[in-house]
Design brief:
Number of helices: 15
Order of helices and strands: EHEHEHEHEHEEHHEHEEEHEHEHHEHHH
CATH architecture of the largest domain: 3-Layer(aba) Sandwich
Mean pLDDT: 92
Number of strands: 14
Radius of gyration: 21 Å
CATH topology of the largest domain: Rossmann fold
Shape: elongated
CATH class of the largest domain: Alpha Beta
Distance between the termini: 18 Å
Oligomer: single chain
Strand order of the largest sheet: 3-2-1-4-5-6-7
Structural class: alpha/beta
Length: about 350
């Protein structure tokens, strides 16, 4: 069969799309991705060997304006274009992951009469995925506290190589490969691909206390942090890490933003975390981390409260206490979903099978 997978803009939309695409391709199905010219999908999708079709980027206007008045017509035009692709290529179904390309994809699927499957990565759903559900789509969610309902909990489609490698690594070997001391407890700090200035500054302010406590730090500062890379005893600072499997395996505790993929990966790998939700937007990151917080797998702290003093008073005692870390790691594994890709794929195939029998 052939499937249209729509989504993009951010890695949080593109990576689960690619995880499902690769699983479908491995089973002999064909995949066409749908995105925009502006999103990360423009680079990431072709790199993985998939064809990318594009639609115009159509942000939903927030204020009364000419753009707001024309928005429904521009959306319908893009959707009719998608319908033509679905019909001409014989697509069996459409799966959307949110982002600008998903709304026209859902409408196009409705016009073409093919099943719609919606995957919502964040605990708070966006406009496009709410539209997909209203159009009769079957909803899959990454977190049990998602506000997109009714929905089936499938978890996040994760990169199989990350999970397999992270879970098979010996922590000491992972540390050696990263240039760290194999015997020291390790704190992983990451703000995501762009970094997080507040997290970076707090960690730098607390670095002396961390080192004196015998804790080494693997600090991924982000490409835009404008901080030079450093490699010294107890502290490795890099702009970007292309070995996140080793980084996760090497670490006892993480400090991170609470993007859906990050929370899902850390939980599936059993890595306890201190989540510092991104303070801008609709607050979805705070909700993404709620399940881990409730389970005892993580702490959640507001961006404004994540300071050197917080690290000294809260983070150091946790990473210095093996019993606490073990308990948090077990809780993370308990809530983590490692087979999200397979669950979503089976939901998709069931939707196609049910539609063909109707």
């Amino acid at each position: 069969m052939k499937f249209l997978l729509a989504g993009g803009g951010t890695a949080g939309h593109v990576n689960p799309l690619l995880a499902l695409a690769e699983s479908l391709r491995a089973d002999g199905h064909e995949v066409l991705a749908l995105g925009t010219k502006e999103g990360l999908e423009q680079r990431l999708v072709p790199e993985r060997g998939f064809e990318l079709a594009v639609v115009p980027k159509l942000p939903m206007p927030r204020k009364v304006s000419a753009a707001m008045l024309s928005f429904p017509f521009r959306l319908l035009a893009a959707a009719w274009k998608v319908r033509g692709v679905i019909k001409s290529q014989g697509m069996a179904a459409v799966v959307g992951f949110g982002g600008y390309a998903s709304a026209p994809a859902y409408l196009g699927a409705k016009f073409a009469g093919v099943p719609i499957v919606v995957h919502e990565a964040n605990a708070k759903a966006g406009f496009a995925n709410r539209l997909g559900l209203r159009l009769g789509g079957s909803a899959a969610v990454a977190f049990g506290n998602s506000d997109l309902q009714p929905a089936k909990l499938v978890g996040m489609p994760l990169r199989s190589e990350i999970l397999a490698s992270a879970n098979s690594y010996d922590p000491q070997q992972a540390r050696v490969e990263l240039g760290l001391d194999p015997m020291l407890p390790t704190l992983l700090v990451t703000g995501g691909s762009l970094g997080a200035r507040s997290i970076n500054l707090a960690v730098l302010d607390a670095l002396g206390d961390l080192l004196r406590a015998g804790i080494q730090v693997l600090h991924i500062v982000g490409d835009r942090a404008e901080l030079p890379e450093r490699n010294e005893q107890g502290y490795l600072r890099i702009a970007y890490c292309n070995r996140m499997d080793a980084a996760i395996a090497a670490s006892d505790l993480a400090v991170s933003r609470a993007g859906a993929s990050t929370v899902s990966e850390f939980s599936a790998c059993g890595l306890p975390a201190v989540y510092v939700p991104y303070p801008v937007g609709n607050g979805e990151q705070r909700f993404n981390a709620q399940t881990a917080l409730d389970a005892g797998a993580a702490l959640v702290v507001a961006d404004a409260d994540f300071t050197a003093e917080f690290i000294t008073s809260k983070v150091i005692p946790i990473i210095s206490h093996r019993k606490t870390l073990n308990k948090m790691a077990a809780a993370a594994l308990e809530i983590g979903i490692s087979d999200g890709t397979e669950r979503l794929k089976q939901m998709l195939l069931t939707a196609v099978d049910t539609s063909s029998r109707d």
